[in-house]
Design goal:
166 residues, mainly alpha, 79% helix, 0% strand, elongated
Length: 166
């Protein structure tokens, strides 16, 4: 049990560091960058770390034998949190596009709206701070809990059905 908690803590800390470093790799508004996005290399370990977090949460839930009600409420709450956080992130991106637009207007006197859309869509270096910030870090943690709870609930339901069949 201590192992799962320690693993979860250490994994969360490493994820936080990766989010911070990736956030710092954002091109300043008004600058031009064309050498790709090195934050993608830093962020590459996030998938295996996410899987490790889900497994750690799952071990913790199994050891504590959480109730079906707790699992369902947890799934609903984390899902609602993820929806709200996603909406917040979309609003934040729209606001950040305005900041970039203002920076280009100040520096060059004009803005190509197609270029602005292009540099703020996808995995570009101009929006790393939109993908790697406190909100998205909390979303990352919340999504790992959501997945672990869903698997835990699925597993407990399958075990109940399996025990009834015997």
């Amino acid at each position: 049990m201590k192992g799962a908690k320690l693993t979860l803590f250490m994994t969360s800390f490493v994820v936080l560091l990766l989010f911070y470093v990736s956030n710092q790799m954002t091109a300043r508004p008004g600058t031009i960058s064309g050498n790709g996005n090195p934050a993608l290399l830093v962020g590459a370990p996030l998938l295996p770390l996410f899987i490790l977090m889900v497994l750690s949460w799952g071990r913790i839930f199994r050891v504590h034998s959480i109730s079906q009600r707790f699992s369902i409420v947890g799934i609903i709450l984390t899902f609602v949190h993820l929806i709200i956080a996603f909406i917040y992130q979309r609003i934040s991106l729209a606001n950040y596009r305005e900041i970039i637009k203002d920076a280009y207007l100040e520096k060059y006197g004009e803005v190509d709206s197609q270029y602005l859309q292009q540099i703020t869509t996808g995995l570009t270096i101009h929006v790393n701070n939109q993908y790697f910030n406190v909100n998205t870090f909390i979303m990352f943690i919340s999504f790992s809990i959501f997945i672990a709870l869903a698997f835990y609930l699925w597993d407990t339901q399958e075990n109940k059905v399996g025990n009834r069949d015997e």
